[in-house]
Amino acid sequence: MTRLPAPLLLLLLGGCTGSVIDPYTREGAWRPNGANESNLVQMLATPTDYTQGQAAPDAMGELATSAVQRLLQDRVRNLPSTTTTGGMGGASGMGGAQ
After folding, report:
1. d(Cα 24, Cα 32) in Å, to the nearest integer?
2. Distance between CA atoms of residues 19 and 25, nearest Å
3. To which H or E segment does residue 65 belong?
4. How far is 74 from 43, CA to CA, in rounded Å?
5. Each residue of 47-60: pLDDT tens digit?
6. Distance between CA atoms of 44 and 38, rounded to whole angstroms?
7. What is the pLDDT of residues 24-39, one digit of tens each?
8. What DSSP letter does each residue of 4-56 carry, written as one string?
9. For the whole prediction, is pTM greater than 0.70?
10. Distance of alpha carbon 86 from alpha carbon 92, whole angstroms
């Protein structure tokens, strides 16, 4: 194995800096500056919606909340049973009434 002379080794290592390794500190690189958050706040019709949203007028929050509570308390209700009647034909488009 060949050994590099000390001055050559120092010259090679002198070019290594943290700015070359870290892409955020490199010149001309993009840096996070909060632009997305700022744009989001400006696009909202009501800026307070960013911190606390509004319910939809037709939202059924109580119904959804009770379902989540049952799930968290391990009291999930069973789905209603369904039965199908008929066979080949009917309104499925495979030989139905004309």
Report:
1. 9
2. 5
3. helix 61-72
4. 40
5. 788 788 777 888 88
6. 10
7. 777 887 777 888 888 8
8. --HHHHHHHHHT--HHHH-TTTSTT-----SHHHHHHHHH-SSGGGGTS----
9. no
10. 10
